Amino acid sequence: MSQKVLLTSKEINIILHRLACQLMENHLDFTNTALIGIQPRGVFLAERLVKILKKEYKIKHIDLGFLDITFFRDDFGRGEILKANSTQMNFLVEDKKVVFIDDVLYTGRSIRSALTAIQSFGRPSNIELLTLIDRRFSRHLPIQPTYRGRQVDAINEEKVKVMWKENDGEDKVYLVSK
Fold first, then answer.
1. Three-state SS for 36?
2. What is the DSSP string of 139-177?
3. What is the pTM assigned to this prediction?
4. How many CB atoms lie within 10 A of CB 57?
C-alpha cells in the first residue's frame, strides 16, 4: 500500500480560506443560511470554516449543525454494522439556505442520504454542497458540489484519505493505493 500527499497543511489552509471567501460572496451576513457538517468527517471542515468566517470576516452569528445520515443510507442494514453519530441541530432549516459540508464527495450517496435526513428539520429554500475533495469520475448519482476545494481524478481502487488535526493529529490529504 502506498500513499501520495495530495494536499499539505499549508495548501489545506489556503483552500479553506478560499472556500470561506466563496461562501461570503454568496451568503454575505449568513442571517438566512445554515452550514451543516455531515457526520462524521464533514464536521471538522464545517467547524474550520465557521472559525475562519467569524475571525477573518467578523460574522457575528452562523447557524452550524451536524447531521447524522446513518439511518438514511441506502446500504443501512445490508451486512456491515454501522455506528451512528449524533445529529446536533438547534435550529430549523425552514426557508433557509442550507450548505451541506463534507470532506470528500465520492459516489454522491452520502449527499442523497443527507437530502432525505434534512427534511426532519424543515424545508430549506435552497441547498448547496461544499466539499474539500471532489472525486469527479466516481459518481453514482448526478450530484455536483457548489464549492469544491480540489478536484481529484482517482481510480476506484484508490482512496482519498483526509486527515484533520483535531482528529488525526495533522492536516493532510493522501491518495492511497493498494
1. strand
2. -SSS---SEEEEE----TT-EEEEE-HHHHSS-EEEEEE
3. 0.93
4. 14
